Amino acid sequence: MSDILYLIIYGFVVTALVGFLASWFERKITARLQYRVGPPLLQPVYDIVKLLGKETLVPFGVSKATFLSAPLLGLASVALVSTLLWVNTLNPGKTFIGDLVVVLYLLTIPSMSMMIGGFASRNPLASLGASREMKLILSYELPFLLAVFVPVIKGGFSIKLGELLSFQAQNGVFGGGASGVLAFVVAILCVQAKIGFVPFDVAEAETEISGGLLIEYSGSSLAIFKVMKNMLLCTLPLFLIVIFFGGLRFDGINALYSLLKYIGILFLIIVIKNTNPRVRIDHAVRFFWGPVMVLAILAVVLAFKGL
Amino acid sequence: MNLKQKALLKSLWVFHMSTGSCNNCDIEIIDCLTPRHDIERFGMVLVGSIKHADVLLVTGSVTRKCIPRIKRIYEQMPKPGFVVAMGECSLSRGMYINSYNCPLPLDKVIPVDVYVPGCPPRPEAMIAGIVKLIEKIKATSEGKK
Ligand code: SF4
User: What are B102-121's pLDDT values in tens digits?
Assistant: First the structure.
Protein backbone atom coordinates (compact mmCIF):
# COMPACT_ATOMS: atom_id res chain seq x y z
CA MET A 1 0.00 0.00 0.00
CA SER A 2 2.68 2.46 0.99
CA ASP A 3 4.45 1.73 -2.31
CA ILE A 4 1.42 2.89 -4.25
CA LEU A 5 1.34 6.03 -2.11
CA TYR A 6 4.99 6.63 -3.00
CA LEU A 7 4.11 6.26 -6.69
CA ILE A 8 1.18 8.63 -6.58
CA ILE A 9 2.41 11.24 -4.12
CA TYR A 10 6.15 11.40 -4.80
CA GLY A 11 6.40 9.84 -8.23
CA PHE A 12 3.65 11.90 -9.76
CA VAL A 13 2.35 14.81 -7.69
CA VAL A 14 5.57 16.10 -6.12
CA THR A 15 7.57 15.54 -9.31
CA ALA A 16 4.97 17.29 -11.42
CA LEU A 17 4.77 20.26 -9.04
CA VAL A 18 8.55 20.62 -8.89
CA GLY A 19 8.60 20.17 -12.66
CA PHE A 20 6.09 23.00 -13.17
CA LEU A 21 8.15 25.26 -10.94
CA ALA A 22 11.30 24.26 -12.81
CA SER A 23 9.66 24.94 -16.14
CA TRP A 24 8.60 28.40 -14.96
CA PHE A 25 12.12 28.99 -13.62
CA GLU A 26 13.53 27.96 -16.98
CA ARG A 27 11.30 30.35 -18.92
CA LYS A 28 11.86 33.17 -16.45
CA ILE A 29 15.66 32.82 -16.48
CA THR A 30 15.63 32.62 -20.26
CA ALA A 31 13.58 35.82 -20.37
CA ARG A 32 15.85 37.60 -17.90
CA LEU A 33 18.93 36.58 -19.86
CA GLN A 34 17.34 38.24 -22.89
CA TYR A 35 16.38 41.38 -20.90
CA ARG A 36 12.71 40.45 -20.97
CA VAL A 37 10.25 40.18 -18.09
CA GLY A 38 9.05 36.63 -18.67
CA PRO A 39 5.87 34.72 -17.85
CA PRO A 40 4.04 34.70 -14.48
CA LEU A 41 4.60 31.95 -11.91
CA LEU A 42 1.51 29.93 -12.77
CA GLN A 43 2.16 29.95 -16.51
CA PRO A 44 2.97 26.20 -16.87
CA VAL A 45 -0.26 25.37 -15.02
CA TYR A 46 -2.30 27.68 -17.26
CA ASP A 47 -0.77 26.05 -20.31
CA ILE A 48 -1.61 22.53 -19.15
CA VAL A 49 -5.17 23.40 -18.06
CA LYS A 50 -5.79 25.16 -21.35
CA LEU A 51 -4.47 22.22 -23.38
CA LEU A 52 -6.62 19.77 -21.39
CA GLY A 53 -9.68 21.84 -22.29
CA LYS A 54 -9.01 21.80 -26.01
CA GLU A 55 -10.06 19.46 -28.75
CA THR A 56 -7.77 16.46 -29.35
CA LEU A 57 -7.36 15.83 -33.05
CA VAL A 58 -6.23 12.50 -34.47
CA PRO A 59 -4.81 12.77 -37.99
CA PHE A 60 -6.53 10.90 -40.81
CA GLY A 61 -5.48 7.27 -41.27
CA VAL A 62 -3.46 7.00 -38.07
CA SER A 63 -3.59 4.11 -35.62
CA LYS A 64 -5.50 5.75 -32.81
CA ALA A 65 -4.24 3.36 -30.13
CA THR A 66 -0.55 3.96 -30.87
CA PHE A 67 -0.95 7.69 -31.40
CA LEU A 68 -2.83 8.31 -28.15
CA SER A 69 -1.03 5.80 -25.93
CA ALA A 70 2.49 7.06 -26.72
CA PRO A 71 2.21 10.08 -24.35
CA LEU A 72 0.84 7.87 -21.57
CA LEU A 73 3.76 5.48 -21.95
CA GLY A 74 6.23 8.34 -21.52
CA LEU A 75 4.39 9.80 -18.55
CA ALA A 76 4.18 6.43 -16.80
CA SER A 77 7.88 5.76 -17.20
CA VAL A 78 8.87 9.18 -15.86
CA ALA A 79 6.57 8.69 -12.88
CA LEU A 80 8.19 5.29 -12.19
CA VAL A 81 11.74 6.66 -12.38
CA SER A 82 10.84 9.51 -10.08
CA THR A 83 9.31 7.09 -7.61
CA LEU A 84 12.49 4.99 -7.54
CA LEU A 85 14.63 8.08 -7.03
CA TRP A 86 12.41 9.58 -4.32
CA VAL A 87 12.13 6.27 -2.44
CA ASN A 88 15.91 5.95 -2.37
CA THR A 89 16.34 9.58 -1.37
CA LEU A 90 13.89 9.40 1.50
CA ASN A 91 14.68 5.90 2.64
CA PRO A 92 17.95 4.39 1.27
CA GLY A 93 17.15 1.07 2.97
CA LYS A 94 14.36 0.35 0.51
CA THR A 95 16.75 -0.16 -2.39
CA PHE A 96 16.96 -3.40 -4.42
CA ILE A 97 19.68 -4.95 -6.56
CA GLY A 98 19.89 -3.33 -9.95
CA ASP A 99 17.59 -0.37 -9.41
CA LEU A 100 20.25 1.83 -11.01
CA VAL A 101 19.92 -0.27 -14.17
CA VAL A 102 16.13 -0.03 -14.03
CA VAL A 103 16.40 3.75 -13.75
CA LEU A 104 18.72 3.90 -16.75
CA TYR A 105 16.34 1.82 -18.84
CA LEU A 106 13.29 3.80 -17.82
CA LEU A 107 15.03 7.11 -18.56
CA THR A 108 15.23 6.24 -22.27
CA ILE A 109 11.51 5.50 -22.51
CA PRO A 110 10.37 9.18 -22.64
CA SER A 111 12.46 9.67 -25.78
CA MET A 112 11.18 6.35 -27.12
CA SER A 113 7.57 7.37 -26.51
CA MET A 114 8.09 10.62 -28.39
CA MET A 115 9.61 8.63 -31.23
CA ILE A 116 6.66 6.23 -31.32
CA GLY A 117 4.27 9.18 -31.33
CA GLY A 118 6.24 10.91 -34.06
CA PHE A 119 6.38 7.88 -36.34
CA ALA A 120 2.72 7.10 -35.65
CA SER A 121 1.50 10.55 -36.65
CA ARG A 122 1.99 9.99 -40.38
CA ASN A 123 3.57 13.35 -41.00
CA PRO A 124 6.84 13.68 -42.89
CA LEU A 125 8.17 16.34 -40.53
CA ALA A 126 7.30 14.23 -37.49
CA SER A 127 9.06 11.22 -39.02
CA LEU A 128 12.07 13.39 -39.66
CA GLY A 129 12.02 14.52 -36.04
CA ALA A 130 11.64 10.93 -34.85
CA SER A 131 14.58 9.73 -36.91
CA ARG A 132 16.68 12.58 -35.55
CA GLU A 133 15.65 11.66 -32.01
CA MET A 134 16.71 8.08 -32.71
CA LYS A 135 20.14 9.18 -33.89
CA LEU A 136 20.43 11.41 -30.85
CA ILE A 137 19.65 8.49 -28.51
CA LEU A 138 22.26 6.36 -30.28
CA SER A 139 24.84 9.07 -29.81
CA TYR A 140 24.30 10.14 -26.18
CA GLU A 141 23.39 6.84 -24.58
CA LEU A 142 26.89 5.31 -24.48
CA PRO A 143 28.69 8.34 -22.95
CA PHE A 144 25.83 8.60 -20.45
CA LEU A 145 26.24 4.96 -19.42
CA LEU A 146 30.02 5.43 -19.04
CA ALA A 147 29.44 8.55 -16.92
CA VAL A 148 27.05 6.63 -14.69
CA PHE A 149 29.61 3.82 -14.49
CA VAL A 150 32.02 6.15 -12.65
CA PRO A 151 29.97 6.38 -9.42
CA VAL A 152 29.42 2.62 -9.65
CA ILE A 153 33.19 2.01 -9.71
CA LYS A 154 33.82 4.46 -6.90
CA GLY A 155 31.02 3.01 -4.81
CA GLY A 156 32.63 -0.45 -4.83
CA PHE A 157 30.75 -1.85 -7.85
CA SER A 158 27.34 -1.47 -6.30
CA ILE A 159 24.34 -1.11 -8.60
CA LYS A 160 21.95 -0.20 -5.80
CA LEU A 161 21.00 3.47 -5.61
CA GLY A 162 20.50 3.22 -1.84
CA GLU A 163 24.01 1.80 -1.32
CA LEU A 164 25.54 4.48 -3.52
CA LEU A 165 23.78 7.09 -1.37
CA SER A 166 24.90 5.67 1.96
CA PHE A 167 28.43 5.21 0.58
CA GLN A 168 28.48 8.90 -0.32
CA ALA A 169 27.13 9.86 3.09
CA GLN A 170 30.14 8.14 4.72
CA ASN A 171 32.99 8.77 2.26
CA GLY A 172 32.13 12.09 0.61
CA VAL A 173 30.34 12.71 -2.67
CA PHE A 174 31.46 11.15 -5.98
CA GLY A 175 31.29 14.50 -7.72
CA GLY A 176 34.29 15.64 -5.63
CA GLY A 177 37.19 13.79 -7.31
CA ALA A 178 38.70 14.40 -10.74
CA SER A 179 36.87 11.47 -12.33
CA GLY A 180 33.61 12.58 -10.71
CA VAL A 181 33.89 16.08 -12.17
CA LEU A 182 34.64 14.75 -15.65
CA ALA A 183 31.77 12.26 -15.45
CA PHE A 184 29.43 15.01 -14.25
CA VAL A 185 30.34 17.21 -17.22
CA VAL A 186 29.60 14.32 -19.59
CA ALA A 187 26.37 13.48 -17.80
CA ILE A 188 25.04 17.03 -17.86
CA LEU A 189 25.63 17.28 -21.61
CA CYS A 190 23.73 14.02 -22.09
CA VAL A 191 20.94 15.26 -19.82
CA GLN A 192 20.66 18.33 -22.02
CA ALA A 193 20.03 16.04 -24.97
CA LYS A 194 17.64 13.85 -22.98
CA ILE A 195 15.45 16.81 -22.01
CA GLY A 196 15.60 18.04 -25.59
CA PHE A 197 16.98 21.50 -24.87
CA VAL A 198 19.11 23.66 -27.12
CA PRO A 199 21.83 22.87 -28.34
CA PHE A 200 20.42 19.36 -28.80
CA ASP A 201 16.79 20.10 -29.65
CA VAL A 202 17.17 19.01 -33.28
CA ALA A 203 14.24 16.62 -32.94
CA GLU A 204 11.74 19.39 -32.20
CA ALA A 205 13.41 22.30 -33.94
CA GLU A 206 10.52 24.74 -34.16
CA THR A 207 11.94 27.06 -36.78
CA GLU A 208 13.08 24.28 -39.04
CA ILE A 209 10.69 21.31 -38.85
CA SER A 210 7.94 23.18 -36.96
CA GLY A 211 7.69 21.16 -33.79
CA GLY A 212 9.01 17.91 -35.28
CA LEU A 213 7.87 14.96 -33.20
CA LEU A 214 4.99 16.79 -31.59
CA ILE A 215 3.66 18.44 -34.74
CA GLU A 216 0.40 16.44 -34.96
CA TYR A 217 -0.35 16.38 -31.24
CA SER A 218 -3.04 18.66 -29.87
CA GLY A 219 -5.23 19.08 -26.81
CA SER A 220 -4.86 16.62 -23.98
CA SER A 221 -2.31 14.35 -25.68
CA LEU A 222 -0.03 17.35 -26.12
CA ALA A 223 -0.72 18.31 -22.50
CA ILE A 224 0.51 14.88 -21.35
CA PHE A 225 3.71 15.29 -23.35
CA LYS A 226 4.20 18.74 -21.80
CA VAL A 227 3.68 17.34 -18.29
CA MET A 228 6.16 14.59 -19.11
CA LYS A 229 8.76 17.12 -20.23
CA ASN A 230 8.19 19.25 -17.14
CA MET A 231 8.59 16.19 -14.94
CA LEU A 232 11.86 15.35 -16.68
CA LEU A 233 13.11 18.76 -15.53
CA CYS A 234 12.69 17.46 -11.97
CA THR A 235 13.73 13.83 -12.50
CA LEU A 236 16.96 14.20 -14.43
CA PRO A 237 18.61 16.76 -12.11
CA LEU A 238 17.45 14.61 -9.19
CA PHE A 239 19.15 11.59 -10.76
CA LEU A 240 22.38 13.55 -11.21
CA ILE A 241 22.20 14.69 -7.58
CA VAL A 242 21.64 11.14 -6.37
CA ILE A 243 24.58 9.62 -8.22
CA PHE A 244 27.06 12.51 -8.03
CA PHE A 245 26.17 14.75 -5.09
CA GLY A 246 24.91 12.49 -2.33
CA GLY A 247 21.18 12.89 -2.84
CA LEU A 248 18.77 15.24 -1.13
CA ARG A 249 18.27 15.47 2.63
CA PHE A 250 15.59 17.45 4.37
CA ASP A 251 16.73 17.74 7.99
CA GLY A 252 17.68 21.20 9.24
CA ILE A 253 20.36 23.03 7.28
CA ASN A 254 20.65 20.13 4.81
CA ALA A 255 17.32 21.15 3.25
CA LEU A 256 18.96 24.40 2.15
CA TYR A 257 21.93 22.52 0.66
CA SER A 258 19.54 20.22 -1.20
CA LEU A 259 17.70 23.19 -2.63
CA LEU A 260 20.98 24.78 -3.68
CA LYS A 261 22.14 21.58 -5.38
CA TYR A 262 18.92 21.27 -7.35
CA ILE A 263 18.72 24.92 -8.36
CA GLY A 264 22.42 24.93 -9.22
CA ILE A 265 22.10 22.01 -11.63
CA LEU A 266 18.91 23.41 -13.13
CA PHE A 267 20.57 26.78 -13.59
CA LEU A 268 23.55 25.16 -15.30
CA ILE A 269 21.23 23.39 -17.74
CA ILE A 270 19.37 26.63 -18.46
CA VAL A 271 22.56 28.61 -19.02
CA ILE A 272 23.88 25.96 -21.43
CA LYS A 273 20.54 26.19 -23.21
CA ASN A 274 20.69 29.94 -23.57
CA THR A 275 24.29 30.42 -24.58
CA ASN A 276 24.42 27.94 -27.44
CA PRO A 277 22.92 27.75 -30.91
CA ARG A 278 21.19 24.61 -32.11
CA VAL A 279 23.65 22.09 -33.58
CA ARG A 280 22.96 20.05 -36.66
CA ILE A 281 22.23 16.36 -36.10
CA ASP A 282 25.51 15.21 -37.68
CA HIS A 283 27.39 17.67 -35.48
CA ALA A 284 25.56 16.35 -32.43
CA VAL A 285 26.44 12.73 -33.26
CA ARG A 286 30.07 13.65 -33.91
CA PHE A 287 30.19 15.70 -30.70
CA PHE A 288 28.93 12.86 -28.53
CA TRP A 289 30.99 10.13 -30.17
CA GLY A 290 34.10 12.33 -30.27
CA PRO A 291 35.04 14.71 -27.45
CA VAL A 292 32.34 13.62 -25.01
CA MET A 293 33.21 9.96 -25.46
CA VAL A 294 36.90 10.70 -24.86
CA LEU A 295 36.02 12.59 -21.68
CA ALA A 296 33.81 9.73 -20.51
CA ILE A 297 36.51 7.10 -21.11
CA LEU A 298 39.03 9.31 -19.34
CA ALA A 299 36.68 9.57 -16.38
CA VAL A 300 36.28 5.79 -16.20
CA VAL A 301 40.05 5.25 -16.36
CA LEU A 302 40.60 7.82 -13.62
CA ALA A 303 37.92 6.16 -11.52
CA PHE A 304 39.70 2.80 -11.85
CA LYS A 305 42.91 4.51 -10.69
CA GLY A 306 40.97 5.67 -7.66
CA LEU A 307 41.11 9.38 -8.37
CA MET B 1 -16.41 32.04 -16.93
CA ASN B 2 -15.03 28.61 -16.13
CA LEU B 3 -11.52 27.44 -15.37
CA LYS B 4 -10.78 26.33 -18.92
CA GLN B 5 -11.57 29.72 -20.35
CA LYS B 6 -9.57 31.54 -17.71
CA ALA B 7 -6.57 29.38 -18.54
CA LEU B 8 -7.15 29.94 -22.25
CA LEU B 9 -7.07 33.71 -21.83
CA LYS B 10 -3.79 33.47 -19.93
CA SER B 11 -2.03 31.28 -22.44
CA LEU B 12 -2.93 32.10 -26.03
CA TRP B 13 -0.57 30.31 -28.39
CA VAL B 14 -0.22 31.95 -31.75
CA PHE B 15 0.37 30.32 -35.11
CA HIS B 16 1.39 32.74 -37.80
CA MET B 17 0.44 32.17 -41.41
CA SER B 18 1.49 34.41 -44.24
CA THR B 19 -0.85 34.36 -47.23
CA GLY B 20 1.33 36.40 -49.52
CA SER B 21 2.37 39.31 -47.37
CA CYS B 22 5.21 41.65 -48.26
CA ASN B 23 7.03 40.31 -45.18
CA ASN B 24 6.80 43.56 -43.29
CA CYS B 25 3.89 42.46 -41.15
CA ASP B 26 5.79 39.27 -40.28
CA ILE B 27 8.78 41.25 -39.09
CA GLU B 28 6.50 43.37 -36.91
CA ILE B 29 5.14 40.19 -35.30
CA ILE B 30 8.64 39.23 -34.24
CA ASP B 31 8.91 42.70 -32.69
CA CYS B 32 6.28 41.67 -30.16
CA LEU B 33 8.69 39.08 -28.74
CA THR B 34 11.56 41.50 -28.22
CA PRO B 35 12.45 42.95 -24.79
CA ARG B 36 10.58 46.17 -25.49
CA HIS B 37 7.15 44.57 -25.86
CA ASP B 38 7.64 41.01 -24.57
CA ILE B 39 4.23 39.41 -24.99
CA GLU B 40 5.43 36.29 -23.16
CA ARG B 41 4.48 38.29 -20.04
CA PHE B 42 0.88 37.44 -20.93
CA GLY B 43 1.66 33.82 -21.70
CA MET B 44 1.62 34.23 -25.46
CA VAL B 45 4.14 32.30 -27.52
CA LEU B 46 4.60 31.66 -31.20
CA VAL B 47 4.20 27.95 -31.94
CA GLY B 48 5.41 26.04 -34.97
CA SER B 49 2.38 23.88 -35.65
CA ILE B 50 -1.29 24.81 -36.14
CA LYS B 51 -2.31 21.80 -34.01
CA HIS B 52 -0.81 23.52 -30.94
CA ALA B 53 -2.34 26.93 -31.61
CA ASP B 54 -5.27 28.86 -30.16
CA VAL B 55 -4.92 31.89 -32.41
CA LEU B 56 -4.40 31.84 -36.16
CA LEU B 57 -2.70 35.08 -37.09
CA VAL B 58 -3.02 35.78 -40.80
CA THR B 59 -0.97 38.36 -42.67
CA GLY B 60 -0.99 39.27 -46.31
CA SER B 61 -3.48 39.66 -49.13
CA VAL B 62 -5.14 36.29 -49.61
CA THR B 63 -3.92 35.12 -53.01
CA ARG B 64 -5.68 32.61 -55.23
CA LYS B 65 -3.06 29.98 -54.42
CA CYS B 66 -3.54 30.53 -50.70
CA ILE B 67 -7.33 30.32 -50.48
CA PRO B 68 -7.58 26.48 -50.33
CA ARG B 69 -4.57 26.35 -48.02
CA ILE B 70 -5.83 28.89 -45.51
CA LYS B 71 -9.14 27.01 -45.41
CA ARG B 72 -7.34 23.75 -44.67
CA ILE B 73 -5.20 25.37 -41.99
CA TYR B 74 -8.30 26.85 -40.39
CA GLU B 75 -10.01 23.46 -40.32
CA GLN B 76 -6.99 21.86 -38.67
CA MET B 77 -6.98 24.28 -35.76
CA PRO B 78 -8.24 22.54 -32.58
CA LYS B 79 -11.31 24.33 -31.25
CA PRO B 80 -11.76 26.69 -29.43
CA GLY B 81 -9.59 28.68 -31.80
CA PHE B 82 -9.65 32.27 -33.01
CA VAL B 83 -8.57 34.08 -36.13
CA VAL B 84 -6.85 37.44 -36.14
CA ALA B 85 -6.43 39.27 -39.44
CA MET B 86 -3.42 41.51 -39.41
CA GLY B 87 -2.41 44.28 -41.74
CA GLU B 88 -4.31 46.21 -44.39
CA CYS B 89 -3.68 43.43 -46.91
CA SER B 90 -5.70 40.74 -45.16
CA LEU B 91 -8.34 43.21 -43.96
CA SER B 92 -9.19 44.72 -47.33
CA ARG B 93 -6.34 43.76 -49.69
CA GLY B 94 -4.74 47.20 -49.22
CA MET B 95 -2.72 48.27 -52.19
CA TYR B 96 -3.42 45.00 -54.01
CA ILE B 97 -7.14 45.67 -54.20
CA ASN B 98 -7.14 45.79 -57.99
CA SER B 99 -4.85 42.80 -58.44
CA TYR B 100 -6.08 39.85 -60.54
CA ASN B 101 -4.60 37.53 -57.93
CA CYS B 102 -6.42 38.73 -54.79
CA PRO B 103 -10.11 38.06 -55.36
CA LEU B 104 -11.35 38.17 -51.76
CA PRO B 105 -10.50 39.77 -48.42
CA LEU B 106 -9.77 37.29 -45.62
CA ASP B 107 -13.14 37.55 -43.86
CA LYS B 108 -14.92 36.32 -47.00
CA VAL B 109 -12.81 33.14 -46.85
CA ILE B 110 -12.75 32.17 -43.16
CA PRO B 111 -14.51 33.77 -40.14
CA VAL B 112 -12.34 36.47 -38.56
CA ASP B 113 -12.59 37.42 -34.88
CA VAL B 114 -10.39 40.48 -34.62
CA TYR B 115 -8.99 42.94 -37.16
CA VAL B 116 -5.70 44.74 -36.64
CA PRO B 117 -5.35 47.58 -39.16
CA GLY B 118 -2.12 49.21 -40.27
CA CYS B 119 0.46 48.76 -42.99
CA PRO B 120 2.24 47.30 -41.12
CA PRO B 121 0.51 47.57 -37.72
CA ARG B 122 2.80 48.71 -34.93
CA PRO B 123 3.45 46.18 -32.15
CA GLU B 124 1.32 48.35 -29.86
CA ALA B 125 -1.57 47.97 -32.30
CA MET B 126 -1.09 44.22 -32.25
CA ILE B 127 -1.17 44.10 -28.47
CA ALA B 128 -4.31 46.25 -28.58
CA GLY B 129 -5.74 43.70 -31.01
CA ILE B 130 -5.01 40.87 -28.61
CA VAL B 131 -6.70 42.83 -25.81
CA LYS B 132 -9.73 43.20 -28.08
CA LEU B 133 -9.70 39.44 -28.66
CA ILE B 134 -9.57 38.74 -24.92
CA GLU B 135 -12.44 41.16 -24.29
CA LYS B 136 -14.42 39.48 -27.03
CA ILE B 137 -13.88 35.97 -25.62
CA LYS B 138 -14.90 37.23 -22.18
CA ALA B 139 -18.02 38.94 -23.55
CA THR B 140 -19.17 35.89 -25.52
CA SER B 141 -18.64 33.54 -22.57
CA GLU B 142 -20.63 35.84 -20.30
CA GLY B 143 -23.35 36.19 -22.92
CA LYS B 144 -23.70 32.41 -23.02
CA LYS B 145 -24.51 32.16 -19.32
S1 SF4 C 1 -0.36 45.20 -44.74
FE2 SF4 C 1 1.30 46.40 -45.57
S3 SF4 C 1 3.09 45.64 -44.43
FE4 SF4 C 1 1.47 44.14 -44.16
S5 SF4 C 1 1.81 42.64 -45.76
FE6 SF4 C 1 0.37 44.15 -46.56
S7 SF4 C 1 1.62 45.63 -47.65
FE8 SF4 C 1 2.96 44.46 -46.31
Answer: 888 888 899 999 999 988 88
Ligand 1 neighbour B97 (Cβ under 6 A): no
The number of distinct structural domains making up chain B is 1
- Tens-digit pLDDT profile for residues B35-91: 888 888 888 888 888 888 889 999 988 889 889 999 999 988 888 889 999 888 888
Asked whether the bond before A40 is cis by omega within 30 degrees of 0, the reply is no
Q: Which of A203, A211, A230, A222 is nearest to A78 (CA)?
A: A230
**Structural domain range at position B82:** 11-143
CATH number of the domain bearing residue B135:
3.40.50.12280
pTM recorded for the entire structure: 0.89
Chain A partners within 8 Å of B52 (Cβ): 211, 214, 217-218, 222
- For residue A78, the enclosing domain spans 3-304
Domain-embedded: residue B100? yes
Does the C-beta of B25 come closer than 6 Å to ligand 1?
Answer: yes
Closest CA to A307 of A174, A188, A184: A174
Residues 193-212 of A with CB under 8 A from B: 206-207, 209-211
